[in-house]
Amino acid sequence: MRCSACGHKVPDNLMLCPACGAMAEETRPIRARRRELEETIPLAVEPEASPTLWERVRPFLLWALVFLCLLALGVGAGAYGGRYQGERDREQRRLELADQHYRAGLARLDAGEYELAIAEFEYALKLNPKHPTASQGIAEARARMATIPTPTVEVYTIVLDDLYRQAKQYYESEDWERAASVLTQLRVLDPGYAAEEVTEMLFTSFYRAGLKCLEEDRMEEGIFYLDQAEQLRPLDEAAALQRELAVQYMTALGYWGVDWELCIERFEQLYARAPGYKDVFNRLYEAHVQYADAWYNMGEMCPAEIEYTRALRLKNDLDIELKRAEANRICLVATPTPIAPLSGTLTMTLTSLPAGFTGRLAYPVYNAQTGLYDLYTLFGDGRLMRVVSGGDQPCWLWSSGTLGYRNLLAPGIALFSPETGSSWQLTSGGGETWPTFSPDGARMAYAAQDASGTWWVYIAPLDGSSEPRLVANGRRPAWGPTGLLAWTGCGADGNCGIFVDHPDDEQPPTRLSANISDIAVSWAPDGGSLAYMSNHTGDWEVYLVSLSGVFARLTNAPESDDGLPVWAPNGSAVAFVSNREGNWSIYLVDPNGENPRKIITLGPSLPDWTNQRLSWAY
Predict the structure, then answer these.
(1) Could you say which of 22, 76, 295, 429 is the most buried, measured as most Cβ atoms within 10 Å of its Cβ?
(2) pTM higher than 0.85, yes or no?
């Protein structure tokens, strides 16, 4: 500070001004002195000032801040809970996906696709490192791979060359059937291998094998070989005629003992065209005689006399003449009464034969006169015939013209050969149903009930060399092209649906679906998926399921019943039965569910239709 008297600067620690001796107390600034006085002497109280805007809004802002903090805490807790539930859902989906890939690995393993099986098992482990059996699947696949040598390009070429040499030997020795078989293998392995020469030899082999089989009365095989030859090159006029005559002969023979009127009609047509063909003359004569005998045994002498007379026009026979005379005598004094058709032939309408229809489609038709089902077959050449009277649940043997079925006249499973017109019984008295056959044709699977009414699936050799072997609890088995067996049943855990298993390994079966109403399984030609029917939605519809567990709905007609699906042998369509237009009919639909079309009208009634089956094969 400075002295108020002389202006000299006075240090704070001095009481007197060092220049003039004035008291320092007097030299302090007014503001400093006033501050001292304020501290020692109370001043008059000033009026309270008005609060500012900040002072007014500050409490509200504090409460708002508290509310926002609490809200943030609530949202955070909810987000944490949602994230926790989402994590649980994702974990469940991950485990389910791992199980799907494990099942796909089992299917690959059964199909012999070991590398793909390992990939599926490894991905299952990636999704679920604690999967209980995926590691075992990998070990099993690698063990099987170890027993299979990996062919090199050189080995592959050696195989092709060896097949070619074998085919050449068979061809030059005129062993046409073996030549055709080996050449077909060669062509499948490498279509480009000596393509022109192989095609030429293959056509000749099919052609010669077909004519040879026809000469030996092996009609079905002969027709097959000629059909294969025609796919390579048009047949000449002579071979085409032989094929047509064989088809006519087999058509007529298919009605033998089943529908005598149609049988006689078809043999008469063939006799008029080629009277010296095979035993057509004797067949026609014998058909008239047996038809007459059938009327005679029923006491219907008038129609019996007519048929005996027609037989005698073909060939004189004293015994037949005596029967005709007796029938004539009784007929003259008998009172005419309406006669029901002896054969009970059912009228069916073939609405259209789809372009590209191949093979043979067997199906059941209810015969109201007998109260039983009969079996008919639609052939790719347009033939439509009844092949079995009193039978249902048809199933063709693989690569064979033989038809397996449930015999309703002598309960059990029987076989029928269209080539010979004969049937023979495989089982009897045990209530066996739903026959299906292994790809090699050596074994049969079927279903039967025990004393308590429980259904079981069995496997037995066709030659009867060993006792039937129990496979599983279930019914309606279907054997696929890769050796897998499918059926509908329930597992030990009580879960039901469609099961798939390789009956010759130790792996447990895989359950593909989850409803006991999933029935009537039919394998796709490649063995990778199945068609089946189910009413889990309240009405019967047709569905598809792959071995990896992917489902698709093939039909959608809520006001009707669709079912009994069966794959075309070339995979181009699925056939099924439906009453969507009132009467029961057979329809075709593309594998994508499009283009449904009716091909055969069956009639107004199909009792217990869900226990029936269609069968379609080459």
Answers:
(1) 295
(2) no
